[in-house]
Write a structure and sequence with these properties.
The chain contains eight helices and six strands, in the order H-H-H-H-H-E-E-E-E-E-E-H-H-H. The chain has about 325 residues and is an alpha+beta fold. It has a single domain, classed as 2-Layer Sandwich (Arylsulfatase, C-terminal domain), CATH 3.30.1120.90.
Length: about 325
Amino acid sequence: MSDSEEFSAEEEEGKEKFRPTFSIEDQPLEVIKRIKALKKLQFENIKLEVKYYEECHKLDLKYQKLYDENNVIRTKIVKGEHEPKNDELEWKDETIDELVTKLERLQVDAKNKVTGIPDFWLTVFQNANESLLSGIFEPIDEAVFKYLEDITLTLPPENKSFTLVFHFAQNPFFENTELTKEYEMKHTFDPEDPLDFDGPEMFRSKGCKINWKAGKNTTVKVIKQKVKQKGKGKGGPKFVTKNEKRDSFFNFFSPPKVPEDDEDIDDVLQAMITEDFDIGYSIKEKLIPRAVLYYTGEALEDDSDEKDEDDDEDGSDEED
C-alpha cells in the first residue's frame, strides 16, 4: 500500500494521523543531536514543574485549614447553631440591606422565624445542576438533600488525591451520615513517558456504599410485572418485581470503573469518566467554596459571563 493510500484509509476511519511539517529523519546529524538535548532540557523543566506543584499543594494544605475554619461557621449558621451578630453582618449588599430594613420595620412575629437557612444545600444543588453538575441532580433527589448539612474537602499531605465528604443528618433514606467520593491524582510524571506530564490530573475515582433503607433507594426503580400462569391455577394473579437503574445524583457515588489499559476505554466510557471528573472538580473548586453564591444564584451569572467570553473567543478564532 502506498503512503497516499494509507493516508486515505486513515481519513476514512476518521483517525487522520498528524504529520509534522518536517521529518526528523531528514535532518542532519548535528540537528538531531540538538533536538535530543532540547528534550533533555524539557525533562529538566518537567522535574521542576513537579516540584512547583508540590509547593502549590503545601499552600493548598495551609489555606484549606483556614477555609475549613470559616466553613465550620458557615455550617453552624446554616443549621441554626450560630446566629451572626455585629461585625459578622458588616457586608454591604443593597438588595439584602433593603429587605432587612423592610422586615425590621414590619417587626415580624417570632412565630414566623425559622432556624438557620432551610434547604440551603438543596437550593445550591438545584441552582448549580445545569452549570456544574451536568444535569444529574434529579427531582427524586430533592427530598434526600433536605438532610444534607455540609460538604467538606479532605486533602492528603501529598497531592495524590482529594475526597469530597457529604454530611447528612439522620434521615429516612439511608443509614449513612457521611457519603464520600475520592478522586485519585497523577501528581508526577510517568517514567515511561515523562515529557507528557502536564500537571496533576485525575485518573480514577472511588465512591462508597450507600446503606439504603427499604424502598428508599433513589437509584433504583422497582417495576411490578404480572406473571403469566399456565393452566387454571387457583388464586389471583401473580406478580414479580424487577429493579431497573434510575437517574439520580446518588449514582455519583458509584462511578464508572477505569480499566488499567487505556485501550479498553471506548468513547462511551470515556465520556462517562470525563463527566465524572468534571463534576467532582466543579464541586471541589466552585460549589464548596462559593456555596452561598450558588444559593442566591449570583454565581450562575458569573458562570454565564465566563461561558459568553469563551464563546466570543471561539467566534473570534473562527473569523480569523
